[in-house]
Design brief:
Dna Topoisomerase Vi A Subunit, Chain: A, domain 2, 5-stranded antiparallel beta sheet, flat, DNA Primase, Chain A, alpha+beta, 5 domains, 28 helices
């Protein structure tokens, strides 16, 4: 049995890991003040970013749903790992050797999820190697006929599964993988006569997550005697959930984030064709329709926030085949269109060619022109409706208006709505007022979307914010702001503020009762200043309802401008709080002095004067030289 990892090693790994690098594999993060980053929360659906990461503190917090933790917590929740697996994974990432209590050893299995991922990676390498064998000639021919050379196959990890019931499983068992593990990974199936390789005689594409880990495979039928479906995918496993993965996202994520554009195509070869043609933001679903979970993944990588200042800068472009399946896919995508804050478009070649065939027949430039010639999603859908009617007749135009009006009524952006009313009137040759009446009538019958465009408050409506005080509820008067800001400095940068100032500030009077509780938590945790457990100690000292407030103060962006000296700010704001308290004490003493008769009570009067001198000296010491 593996032993417990030593606490010092856990702290060392946590300190060495840059939390933003790990979170950045899943969420596009942007600057949000000094030392703070923010993005769309991966734990709940939101329209405006409320998920903050503080790299120096090594902690994240979502102000929408309350999720909070460090790098290990993040991995446990995102990848469903155990704490030990998360620590071992990060230690391996930085090349740190862990030590275990009582002479225990590392868990070589690293948990079920890690074993599945490792088996998938070994399988991917096996399939890639098999593509160069004589048996795989049919696979190489398939790729060549579609314009993909060996270099392209290697770039996308394309491989070949031999036509054998146990070639893969025999190979993987030599690495120590058990039959149960291969079943759990979906690499083999269970039949009446035992297990068998799931993929046989097929071209295989590895399906990876945003970190590049292989979650599963998609396999294309090549042989006439293969009685299976045209495409066969890994079944649902502990790591592979087809509704939540997008093929090519590992290769496309950085360009999606940088260019604020994503192109959604319909197949693996379409993704390859787009990338090779220079459209490096292309991704595809894996054996399932484009749905809500795919949208959540794309929005996080795209940084798709609801902000009127940035509306229109993000683009989601769909390509659809002209057949019935493609039209159904277009309808499904349109039904979810308003979950995006980014603008949505459709790109369809005039002759109905998909990106792979278009590149093969007309070259890379044709693929680039296809994407650059995109049309707005609403225009595409309205014109699609109009194409189903005979606009040469009065009856046809009226029927077309009735069919298209609900589409236009579904546009929640008022400016776009007015524009499409005008366009629809032009396309039909009808009066704008008549079209407007039809759209308004249809609007009353259109159900409100789950997440309307431009609705930052939607995140709050669906969040599960813990009970108790929150930063969002604090008053905005100068006194409360000073108390809040000084607590943030002490919680986030105790080493900069220094033990002496933290101790003095923790004795100061606070006007806000909730912040005073946090102050008391700091006072009770002074001995932990400078340790990795500092913030956790304070959280543990305050009553449970106040824990979330401490977490928020521990990651919220400091109200300080970039470029200024952080030390000066943190020490300055804390000193201001102490100075305010000293000034309050001075006023009290002056009042006592006026009420004290120096002749009748000389000892008390002298004591007051000595204390006033001491306070003034302390105030001078607080001022920067």
């Amino acid at each position: 049995m593996p032993g417990l990892i030593r606490r010092n090693d856990i702290d060392e790994v946590r300190a060495r890991i840059n939390l933003a690098d790990i979170v950045g594999d899943y969420v596009t993060l942007k600057g949000a003040g000094v030392g703070s980053l923010k993005g769309l929360c991966p734990f709940h659906d939101e329209r405006s970013p409320s998920f903050h990461v503080r790299t120096q503190v090594g902690r994240y917090h979502c102000f929408g749903c309350g999720e909070d933790g460090d790098v290990f917590t993040f991995l446990q929740k995102m990848d469903h790992t155990t704490f030990t697996e998360a620590v071992e994974r990060m230690a391996a990432r930085i090349g740190f050797e862990l030590h275990y209590e009582d002479g225990g050893q590392a868990n070589s299995d690293h948990g079920n999820r890690a074993r599945i991922l490792a088996a998938n990676q070994a399988a991917s390498e096996f399939f890639s190697a098999q593509l160069g064998t004589a048996e795989a000639e049919v696979g190489r021919q398939f790729l060549g006929e579609r314009g993909f050379d060996p270099t392209a196959a290697q770039r996308f990890g394309v491989g070949f599964a031999p036509k054998s019931y146990d070639a893969l499983s025999k190979h993987l068992k030599t690495f120590g993988y058990t039959e149960a593990e291969l079943l759990a990974a979906g690499l083999v199936g269970q039949g009446d006569r035992g297990t068998y390789d799931r993929f046989r005689g097929r071209l295989v594409w590895p399906i990876r997550d945003v970190t590049g880990a292989t979650l599963g495979f998609g396999a294309r039928k090549l042989l006439d005697d293969d009685q299976g479906p045209k495409y066969l995918n890994t079944p649902e496993t502990a790591v592979y959930h087809k509704s939540q993965v997008l093929y090519g996202l590992d290769l496309a994520k950085r360009d999606i984030s940088r260019g604020r554009q994503v192109v959604v195509v319909e197949g693996y070869t379409d993704v390859m064709a787009c990338h090779l043609a220079g459209i490096t933001t292309a991704v595809a679903t894996c054996g399932t329709a484009f749905g809500v979970d795919h949208i959540k993944v794309i929005r996080r990588v795209l940084g798709d926030v609801d902000n009127r200042d940035t509306t229109g800068t993000g683009e989601v472009i769909f390509t659809f085949d002209p057949d019935e399946a493609g039209q159904k896919a277009a309808s499904r995508a349109f039904s979810e269109e308003q979950r995006f804050a980014a603008q949505t478009f459709v790109a369809v070649a005039a002759d109905g060619l998909d990106p792979c065939d278009l590149r093969l027949q007309r070259g890379d430039d044709a693929v680039r022109r296809l994407i650059s010639g995109k049309k707005p999603m609403f225009e595409f859908m309205v014109r699609r409706v109009l194409d189903e009617h005979n606009l040469a007749t009065v009856e046809g135009r009226v029927a077309a208006l009735r069919a298209a009006a609900p589409v236009v009524a579904g546009i929640r952006d008022q400016a776009l709505n007015v524009g499409y009313v005008r366009n629809l009137a032009g396309w039909l040759g009808l009066d704008i007022a008549e079209v407007s009446r039809a759209v308004n009538a249809a609007r009353g019958k259109v159900a409100e979307p789950t997440k309307p465009r431009y609705a930052p408050e939607a995140a709050a409506e669906t969040s599960s914010q813990p009970e108790g005080p929150s930063m969002m509820q604090l008053p905005i008067d100068p006194a409360t702001r000073l108390e809040r800001d000084s607590l943030m400095a002490m919680l986030q940068h105790p080493d900069i503020v220094g033990v002496e100032l933290v101790q003095r500030a923790s004795q100061a009077a606070y006007s806000n009762a909730s912040l005073a509780v946090v102050r008391d938590g700091i006072a009770a945790s002074i001995d932990a200043i400078g340790s990795p457990q500092w913030l956790d100690r304070v959280i543990g000292e305050v009553p449970p309802p106040f824990a979330n407030l401490v977490k928020e103060l521990g990651v919220a962006p400091l109200p300080e401008k970039e470029g200024r000296e952080l030390t000066a700010y943190c020490r300055g704001v804390t000193a201001s709080l102490i100075d305010r308290d000293l000034l309050r004490r001075k006023a009290e003493l002056l009042g006592d002095s006026h009420r004290t008769d120096a002749a009748a009570e000389p000892a008390k009067y002298r004591e007051i004067q000595v204390e006033l001198v001491r306070i003034e000296a302390e105030r001078r010491d607080l001022r920067p030289e």
